[in-house]
Structure formats: C-alpha cells, structure tokens
Amino acid sequence: MEMRERIATALKDAMKSKDQERLSTLRLINAAIKDREIAMRGAGDGASVGDAEVLAIMGKMVKQRQESARAYEEGGRLELAEKELREVSVIEEFLPRQLSGDEVEAAVSAAIAKVGASSIRDMGRVMAELKGKYTGQMDFGAVGPMVKDKLG
Predict the structure, then answer these.
(1) Which of 67, 92, 117 is the last residue of a domain?
(2) What pLDDT, on a 0 to 100 scale, did the predictor assign at position 23?
(3) Band of residue 6 on the pLDDT scale cut at 50, 70, 90
(4) Domain range holding 82?
(5) Using an 8 Å Cβ cutoff, are 87 and 25 in contact?
(6) 34, 128, 131, 141: least CB-packed within 10 angstroms?
(7) Pair 117, 125: CB distance under 8 Å
(8) Cβ contacts of residue 124 below 8 Å, gap of 6+?
(9) Would you state the pLDDT for residue 83?
(10) What is 18-55 written as a DSSP string?
(11) Residues 71, 31: one domain?
(12) Which CATH number characterizes residue 83's domain?
C-alpha cells in the first residue's frame, strides 16, 4: 500500500475511534505533504510527492519533535515534552525500521564499494547511493561523518 493511502486509512480510523491526539498528528502529516506538493507545483516540476519524499518529510517531522521535546524538558515543561514524544511515536509508525549501528556500517561499506569511491571527493556519490536506498532508515547527519572517516 502506498504511504499516502496508509496515512489516509489511519486518519479515517482515528476519526472513527475519536482519538483526537492521533488524529491531530495525522492531520499534521497530511498538511506537510500538501505543503510540499504545493511547493513542487510552484517550482514548475509538475511531479507529485512520492513515497521517498513522504518518508523524508516524516523523518524531518520526527527530528523537529525530538528537538522540541528536548527543549521543553530543559525548560521544565514536561507535559509539552511528552506530547511531542507521543506525536513522534505516531509518525514513526509509518517509517521503516531504523537500521542498527552494525547495519549502517555495512550499508556504508557496501555503498562505497558499489560506487567505487576512493577519496573524499566521492562522498557525494556515496551519500546519494545511501539516500536512494535507505531513506527513512538511517540518520544521514550521523552517517556523513562515518562516510568521511572511511574515505578520508
């Protein structure tokens, strides 16, 4: 089932079960997807938002909420931090399983071998390979330095 269909089905289920918190989070996901579609239309691409793009949007939403929760905890606003973390759990239901450290390491090594990377100048090609294959499954902010270490 396509990602957007899964979200729409979950939205309907949340409406039927009157789960307001879940419904609110699912509506936020839909709004973010529609915003991206409008931006793409404005750029003249004419393309629609695919599953990879939806995964990227949701990954960004998770990261934003985790940062907000951390800020709320530091500010002593635990109820707001808990709300952010509950939203994260709803969003993560739609994301693929995150790769473990060992799996990320193996994926990086495989990508380096596949593109024939030999120096730091090949880092962009390695990252493109990883993003094409593992979008939503790894934190590319953490993977970048790992690739750099292996190539440097």
Answers:
(1) 92
(2) 95
(3) very high
(4) 3-92
(5) yes
(6) 141
(7) yes
(8) none
(9) 95
(10) T-HHHHHHHHHHHHHHHHHHHHHHHTT--PPP-HHHHH
(11) yes
(12) 1.10.1510.10
- Inter-axis angle of helices 78-92 and 20-42, to 10 degrees? 70
Confidence of residue 29 (pLDDT cuts 50, 70, 90): very high
State mean pLDDT over 1-12. 89
Same domain, 114 and 82: no
**29: buried, middle or exposed (CB in 10 Å: 19+, 13-18, 0-12)?**
buried
The label of the residue with tokens 């307001």 reads 20
Extract the tokens encoding 101: 């450290």
Q: What angle do CA 97, 70, 72 make, to 5 degrees?
A: 130
